[in-house]
Amino acid sequence: MPAMAEIRNYTINFGPQHPAAHGVLRLVLELDGEVIVRADPHIGLLHRGTEKLAETRTWLQTLPYLDRLDYVSMMCNEHAYCLAVERLLGAEVPLRAQYIRVMMDEVTRILNHLLNIGTHALDIGAMTMVLYTFREREDLMDVYEAVSGARLHAAYYRPGGVYRDLPDRMPQYVQNKFKNAETVKRLNEARQGSLLDFIEDFTNRFPAYVDEYETLLTDNRIWKQRTVGVGVVSPERALALGFTGPMLRGSGVEWDLRKKQPYEVYDRMEFDVPVGVNGDCYDRYLVRIEEMRQANRIVKQCIDWLRMNPGPVITDNHKVAPPPREKMKAGMEELIHHFKLFTEGMHVPPGEAYAAIEHPKGEFGVYAISDGGNKPYRIKLRSPGFPHLAATDEMAKGHMIADATAIIGTIDLVLGDTDR
Amino acid sequence: MEKITNFFKTFLLFELVKGMALTGRYFFARKITVQFPEEKTPQGFRFRGLHAQRRYASGEERCIGCKLCEAVCPALAINIETEEREDGTRRTTRYDIDLMKCIFCGFCEESCPVDAIVETRILEYHGEKRGDLYYTKPMLLAVGDKYEEQIAKDRAADAKYR
Ligand code: SF4
Ligand code: SF4
Fold first, then answer.
1. Phi, psi for A334 (deg, rounded to 5)
2. How far is CA A297 from CA A228, A292, B143, B156, in A?
3. Alpha helices, DSSP H only, in chain B?
4. What contacts A332, CB < 8 A, 6 or more positions away?
5. Is A107 helix (H, G, I), strand (E, B) or coil?
6. Chain A stretch 126-145, residues whose beta carbon is closer than 8 A to a beta carbon of chain B
7. Which residues contact B58 (CB under 8 A, 6 or more apart)?
8. CA–CA min distance A300, chain B (Å)
9. Residue A109 has what pLDDT?
10. How far, rounded to the nearest angstrom, does the alpha carbon of residue A39 sit from its chain's CA centroid?
11. What separation in Å is there between the alpha carbon of A64 and the centre of ligand 2?
12. Measured on CA atoms in the order B89, B78, A316, A102, is the torsion positive or negative?
């Protein structure tokens, strides 16, 4: 009697070049027909050794590298780092700088969620979504550019505050052969005043845009078929797996560092924390949509405060932050501080500190150890994406291969911060 | 009642039609497309692009070879060598920026005490072979000479924030 043919599961590589595998994720899928038996994420293709690099850079020099971790929410990464360094230094941050940080953090949150929802929908097959979300991203990118000089890698926060105050004018469109005077005038309407006017105009328009996204997706039967009941995580499992951010809130656990351990001026802000019920992709999508609306609310409150209260945006302790240029050019002592800070860097008292913020993706934490020198002794970065990615197997098991895309999309994966 | 409306909504593809209507509205709406490269979106005044070395109005180069920018550069992209010139002043004999290493953080500009090294608003530059993006002192000075007007205007406008 011939032996029974042995049937083996089929193993495929999903990524790193697959268009739906975000970034350079390599997912080894073991398939039984079309059903996923095991999903095994392989990371490390974007590893740049940021933690190790920091040990040979001064405290200030490490900062721009933080931008490059989660390259979709740049300023939030910087924020966690600055908080950690400030905690070690015991430095005071001017109130205006705190408000600017909170405002830019929320702008970043909107940026991040826009990208996530747009590309998630794109991966699942809703082609147009990304066009709508990127239209709004463009406005916010302009905000980034006006504030810091870069559209992505801002390097804007500093230990002790932020680099520069918000600008009081916005760049404008110019007339050309494609756009007549009238069009240009209309496009420049929001750009007449200061940056704050520009952002305010955006916050007024934004809720209507979110309604548009909802019209396109929330009730859409195809979107629902692809997301409802896919990648379900129970609240208990979500906690056990170390989920944070929308992933955790989508499962119904009300945990938000902005509420639970308020940092900066979040305790003065009025906003709600949305939570999901079923813990599936659809609920997480709804949580993100609502978070954008809430972020919009926070930005509005910050604008109101920032308008009323001019002031310094960086600490005047010149052992931490350089003096203003005017003074540096006129005074000997300031010049010495300037030289010391940019060559040797600041000295941070020995000790260790952990600072975590509610990053758009979850809890982003920086654990810094200082031995009293001008460089960190060790920096450990806690990225929210890592535990989420680690749970892919649990979420994807038993689903069809097409659902793997939905699951990768929903964990809002950015390999830059998973690999560090 | 709700059941009946829901039934009809499902049956008549209500939400899909609503989505299509939105798309249709935008089909006829004013276009927001920007015809790059003929036209460009507005560029921020603080934009950090290609580097340049500036000169004083007298034509004398600003850089005094203090090496602050070299020290602060996180990517170690700047290389400087200095020497005493005949008239007794200290000037650089070599000032190279490797743009392939540079991460465009802007720290060099921030640190320079005489506003010599700056990041201009130029973003369209390229290299065709290896080494093309290794900018040496004459190249940087040439960029500075060409765009001095714009550079000076941007610095003056931003001076009160720095
Ligand atoms: S922008 Fe930053 S990385 Fe580039 S040369 Fe200047 S200091 Fe170095
Ligand atoms: S460019 Fe400025 S910071 Fe760099 S060496 Fe010259 S003077 Fe010093």
1. -65, -40
2. 28, 9, 44, 35
3. 2-11, 14-28, 68-72, 107-111, 137-158
4. none
5. helix
6. 128, 135, 138, 142, 145
7. none
8. 22
9. 92
10. 26
11. 20
12. positive
**Rounded to whole angstroms, how far apart are CA atoms A207 and A61?**
38
Among A176, A216, A328, beta carbon nearest to B19: A216
Which residues neighbour B79 within 8 Å (Cβ) at sequence distance 6 or greater? Answer: B70, B94, B95, B96, B97, B98
Q: Does A164 touch chain B (CB under 8 A)?
A: yes
Count the helices and strands in chain A (H runs, E runs): 18, 8
pLDDT in tens, A88-107: 988 888 999 999 999 999 99
Quickly tell me which residue has 């756009």 as its tokens: A179
* Closest CB to A171 among B43, B72, B158: B43
Three-class secondary structure of residue A226 per DSSP: helix
Residues A351-398: pLDDT tens digits? 899 999 989 988 999 999 998 888 899 899 988 888 888 888 888 888
- Quick: pLDDT tens for A106-128: 999 999 999 999 888 888 888 88
Q: Which value, in Å, is the radius of gyration of the alpha carbons in chain A? A: 23
Alpha helices in B53-127 (DSSP H): 68-72, 107-111
Strand runs (DSSP E) across A100-244, as ranges? 157-158, 161-162
Token representation of residue B120: 């201009």
Q: Which region, left, alpha or beta, applies to residue A44 given φ > 0 means left and ψ of -120 to 50 means alpha?
A: left
A163: region left, alpha or beta (phi > 0 left; psi from -120 to 50 alpha)? alpha
For helices A95-124 and A74-89, give the axis angle rounded to 10 degrees: 150
Q: Is the distance from CB of B20 to CB of B111 less than 8 angstroms?
A: no
Q: What is the ipTM of this complex?
A: 0.84
Return the CA Rg of chain B. Answer: 26
Q: Which residue is closest to A336 within chain B, CA to CA?
A: B113
Token pair for residue A20? 């739906």
Could you give the CA distance from residue A197 to residue A143 in angstroms, rounded to a whole number? 11
Going by CA atoms, what residue is nearest to atom 4 of ligand 2? B69
Q: How far is CA B30 from the centre of its chain?
A: 30
What span, in angstroms and rounded, lies between the C-alpha atoms of A380 and A54?
10
The half-sphere exposure of A172 on its side-chain side, counting CA atoms within 13 A, is 19
- A164·B46 Cβ contact <8 A: yes
Query: Of A280, A292, A260, A265, nearest to A108 (Cα)?
Result: A292
